[in-house]
Amino acid sequence: MNQVQNCVQIINPQIKNFKPDVGLILGSGLGQFCDNIETQASIDFDQLPGFPIAGVGGHAGRLLLGRIGKTTVAVLQGRAHYYEHGKADIMAVAIQTLSALGCESLVLTNAAGSLMVDAAPGSIMLITDHINMTGVSPLFGAQGNQRFVDMVEAYNPLLNSKIRAAAHTNKITLHEGIYAWMSGPQFETPAEIQALKVLGAQAVGMSTVPEVILARHLGMPLCALSIITNFAAGMSPTLISHEQTIEYAKKAENSVKDLLNSYLKSFSEKEI
């Protein structure tokens, strides 16, 4: 029995006949979104074989199963990053478990630095594509032809439309753009940010892209949001810090909550 099967066997007795419609992975400082969930089961990551141990402030390391409105959800309250363990596939078992439980799609969130002067800290960006600047993949070592994953429209157009509609309903300004994945844990240099601008990036961060690749490998449609927590290096005199990341993520929480609540309510239509 592999780790994913073990995880499913641990989860199922705690919440019988439960099939999540949507899986969510919450980034830095967004844990309070979970207060909106009608929680039916809560399991710490360390009880699930192969789930990551989240070692960064703002990541609780907990799987929540329940409902938001009529939509059943499985929420990863936190994630682990490539820079913590040197493993690009550190989130593989967690995402494979969501798939095994029956999740039909994913929503990924992260905290990111803005390369756009009009997207200030506290704003939200819909990720439309990404640039992998790390040179690594969570599929290193995978077998078979399925590892050659098509990444065109990795961020599902229909789900993106649902996010735009939810933003419009709640009168939330929604930026859109390309997310650049850097390995971290150090923040970027001003020269690196200038290079990313030339390449076409609008935001930069240290997560999400491996999860997108893993989900695509499993055939799971997804969308992703960046919570802008700082201007990128060289764009502001303010020094960048993780404390700033947590502070501005919390300032955006109400907007994120309203946006995701409206988005999740749309799944009663079962389009995906």
Report on the architecture of this protein.
This protein has about 270 residues and is an alpha/beta fold. The protein has helices spanning about 5-10, 80-85, 90-100, 155-170, 190-200, 210-220, 240-250, 255-265; strands at about 20-25, 40-45, 60-70, 70-75, 105-115, 125-130, 175-180, 205, 220-230. The protein has one domain (about 5-270): Nucleoside phosphorylase domain (Rossmann fold, 3-Layer(aba) Sandwich). Helix content is about 30%, strand content about 25%. A five-stranded mixed beta barrel has the order 5-8-7-6-9, surrounded by four helices. The model has no long low-confidence stretch (mean pLDDT about 90).
Oligomer: single chain
CATH topology category name: Rossmann fold
Supply the number of structural domains. Answer: 1
Q: What is the succession of H and E elements? A: HEEEEHHEEHEHEHEHH
Q: Helix proportion of residues, in percent?
A: 25-40%
Number of DSSP E strands: 9
Could you give the topology of this structure?
Elements: H1 3-11, E1 22-26, E2 38-44, E3 62-68, E4 71-77, H2 82-85, H3 92-101, E5 105-114, E6 124-132, H4 157-169, E7 174-181, H5 190-199, E8 203-205, H6 209-218, E9 222-231, H7 242-251, H8 253-265
Parallel strand pairs: 1-4, 1-5, 5-9, 6-7, 7-8
Antiparallel strand pairs: 2-3, 3-4, 5-8, 6-9
